[in-house]
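ARCHIVE CARD
CATEGORY: sequence design from structure
SOURCE FIELD: tokenized fold
FIELD CONTENT:
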């Protein structure tokens, strides 16, 4: 079962969900925001009950899918896959020891990524910094958390990164990770999947340039070192998220060192059980 936000041709923003391969409009059920659903004890059960009612069907050609965030902050975890740890150590002799230590440490690396209003939806451009020489996408499974820190769903994230800026000095991490168009989210939130089910999902990425693939890669969410509840628990330590949060869980796919994104590239990320996220690339 999948939840989404969409915009009609007259500019109205609505909430929808997929039932039996049909996109249904929840407006007539009195649902105009995601928050009440995500804060409920059992969002999937509530939507199952609503699917039995006569809700209007929506044609995909009549709407624009939006990022599935309203007022949630987006955060991210780093060095959660062995491949990511190796890549981060390779990009910086200066910071290699820190990356090695955080992979094995009790406390994960967590950092703020984006406000909701800055998140890029599918179809719109993600950005590479104009002062960076080495830019890559990072395909990630994203946890959708309610205000109590409970995982209520999953979506797809792209944690755009400037590897040369981060590699120069760890203190430059915010500049390498947080800038205009640096965070994109798939429009779909998959509900009711267990962590065990989600860990079986494959994650793939393809980068196209001039109509041809210049990089592709795959991993599994099962390669993630830390549990979902562990990551969510650390995020909510001494923190309050009254509107919930989205937590990107790190990447297990890293392009080769000689590869960098260019303006005009297209990045497509797919995760089993959720869907796809596709964005062109621009310089910001």
């Amino acid at each position: 079962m999948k939840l989404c936000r969409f915009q009609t041709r007259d500019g109205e923003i609505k909430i929808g969900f997929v039932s039996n391969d049909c996109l249904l409009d929840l407006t007539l059920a009195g649902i105009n925001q995601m928050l009440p659903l995500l804060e409920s004890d059992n969002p999937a059960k509530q939507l199952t009950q609503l699917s039995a009612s006569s809700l209007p069907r929506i044609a995909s050609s009549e709407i624009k899918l939006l990022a599935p965030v309203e007022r949630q902050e987006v955060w991210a975890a780093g060095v959660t896959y062995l491949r990511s740890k190796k890549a981060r150590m390779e990009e910086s002799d200066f910071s290699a020891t820190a990356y090695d230590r955080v992979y094995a440490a009790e406390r994960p690396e967590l950092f703020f990524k984006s406000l909701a209003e800055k998140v890029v939806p599918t179809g719109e451009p993600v950005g590479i910094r104009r002062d960076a020489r080495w830019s890559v996408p990072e395909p990630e499974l994203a946890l959708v958390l309610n205000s109590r820190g409970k995982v209520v769903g999953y979506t797809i994230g792209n944690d755009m990164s400037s590897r040369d800026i981060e590699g120069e000095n760890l203190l430059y991490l915010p500049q390498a990770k947080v800038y205009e168009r640096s965070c994109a989210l798939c429009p779909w939130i998959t509900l009711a999947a267990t962590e065990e089910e989600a860990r079986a999902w494959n994650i793939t990425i393809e980068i196209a340039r001039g109509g041809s693939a210049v990089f592709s890669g795959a991993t599994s969410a099962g390669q993630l070192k830390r549990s979902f509840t562990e990551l969510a628990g650390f995020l909510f330590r001494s923190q309050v998220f009254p509107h919930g949060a989205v937590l990107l869980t790190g990447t297990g796919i890293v392009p080769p060192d000689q590869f960098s994104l260019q303006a005009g590239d297209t990045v497509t990320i797919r995760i089993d059980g959720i869907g796809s996220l596709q964005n062109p690339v621009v310089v910001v």
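CARD ANNOTATION: The chain is about 20% helix and 35% strand. The first strand starts at residue 2 and ends at 8.
SHELF: design records, drawer C
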